Amino acid sequence: MQTILVVDDESNIIELARLYLERDGYKVESAANGREAISKQKSVNPDLIILDLMLPDIDGFEVCRQIRAKSAIPILMLTARKEDVDKIIGLELGADDYLTKPFNPRELAARVKAVLRRYQTGATPREMMEIGNLRIDLPAREVTVAGKPVALRVKEFDLLAAFAQNIGIVLSREKLLEIVWGYDYYGETRTVDVHVKNLRDKLSASDVSIETFRGTGYKMSPARSTG
């Protein structure tokens, strides 16, 4: 049985999440503030954390930052505000997904299932891929550029794998959401843009480029030779 840690200072949110997650066969632990969340993450070792941003002591951003410094555990953030900046900061800190309050509990359960599925299976083809000085070891989930390791988060690696397996093909944001996140993201495609930006930064020394096709999506191509 997989364990989900729900971190929220609103008891009704915790109980609503517990009702739907336990119905799907998960064990649910809870924490009402940031310090308790960090402590329980260490003691319970959950499979996924549902983390509210607005906590009474340490905010969700700092909790995410501290957990990410030591663990790659999937994190789904909850925010009561609709501003993109909260979502973008959360994603840049390493959150795997986010959901805006008030939310449909069925959607929460679906997102938990999708994040866990992607986290567990990762890239399914067992093969090695090399594009110029970029080397992708899919089974080991390791990436090197010119022989130097590149640290990618879970979704960044999955996004790179999707591009590499479709090299030279334009992939829409919706298609990337389907491949990488594993479900319909209800029109919230900004997360793709954030992850592509992070990926570009981390692969800046590689022999590939990720091109933007305005209004369509993205395509990864080998860098043009200058020789």
Task: Please explain how this structure is put together.
The chain is α/β, with parallel strands linked by helices and 227 residues long. The protein has two domains: 3-121, Rossmann fold, CATH 3.40.50; 128-222, Winged helix-like DNA-binding domain superfamily/Winged helix DNA-binding domain (Arc Repressor Mutant, subunit A, Orthogonal Bundle). It is built from eight helices and twelve strands. It has helices at residues 11-23, 34-44, 60-68, 84-93, 105-121, 154-164, 173-181, 190-202; strands spanning 3-7, 27-31, 48-52, 75-79, 97-100, 128-131, 134-137, 142-145, 148-150, 171-172, 208-213, 217-222. A five-stranded parallel sheet has the order 2-1-3-4-5, sandwiched between helices. The chain has a four-stranded antiparallel sheet with strand order 6-7-8-9, covered by helices on one side. A hairpin with a 3-residue loop joins strand 11 (208-213) and strand 12. Helix 6 (154-164) packs across helix 7. The longest helix has 17 residues, at 105-121. It is elongated. Residues 122-126 have low confidence and may be disordered.
Helices and strands in order:
Elements: E1 3-7, H1 11-23, E2 27-31, H2 34-44, E3 48-52, H3 60-68, E4 75-79, H4 84-93, E5 97-100, H5 105-121, E6 128-131, E7 134-137, E8 142-145, E9 148-150, H6 154-164, E10 171-172, H7 173-181, H8 190-202, E11 208-213, E12 217-222
Parallel strand pairs: 1-2, 1-3, 3-4, 4-5
Antiparallel strand pairs: 6-7, 7-8, 8-9, 10-12, 11-12
Helix pairs in contact: 1-5, 2-3, 4-8, 6-7, 6-8
Short characterization:
The chain has 227 residues and is of the alpha/beta class. It has helices at residues 11-23, 34-44, 60-68, 84-93, 105-121, 154-164, 173-181, 190-202; strands at residues 3-7, 27-31, 48-52, 75-79, 97-100, 128-131, 134-137, 142-145, 148-150, 171-172, 208-213, 217-222.
